[in-house]
Write a structure and sequence with these properties.
Number of helices: 4
Largest sheet: none
Order of helices and strands: HHHH
Radius of gyration: 15 Å
Distance between the termini: 19 Å
């Protein structure tokens, strides 16, 4: 529960920052930040069932890494005003998210 809760809290924090303090009117940057936040929140919720899956460390680790690599990269690109920063990292994060969800889908809860 701890990792899912902390990730959810940080998603809410980033969302609040984006709504009230994000210093941009560029539609691309706003969309990028909102995409990062949406993926951050929804994937934070996936960390809760991951704890009860057959492979909790692997599925939770992949989803946690995916959140950091995907959403973290998008947040950084917007907040640092540098769209080239960490350009190849977000797809790696997305792959981690896909694999984590796939692992959840194919695993049964332990008996």
């Amino acid at each position: 529960w701890g990792l899912g809760g902390l990730s959810g809290v940080s998603a809410i924090g980033f969302g609040s920052y984006g709504a009230h303090k994000l210093d941009t009117t560029d539609p691309y940057e706003v969309k990028t930040f909102n995409t990062a936040n949406l993926y951050h929140m929804f994937n934070s919720l996936a960390l809760f069932p991951a704890a009860y899956s057959r492979f909790p460390i692997l599925s939770g680790g992949l989803i946690g890494a995916g959140i950091g690599l995907f959403s973290g990269t998008l947040y950084a690109r917007v907040m640092m005003k540098d769209h080239s920063i960490l350009a190849g990292v977000a797809p790696t994060g997305g792959t981690c998210l896909i694999l984590g969800w796939l692992l959840l889908a194919i695993s049964k809860a332990p008996k």
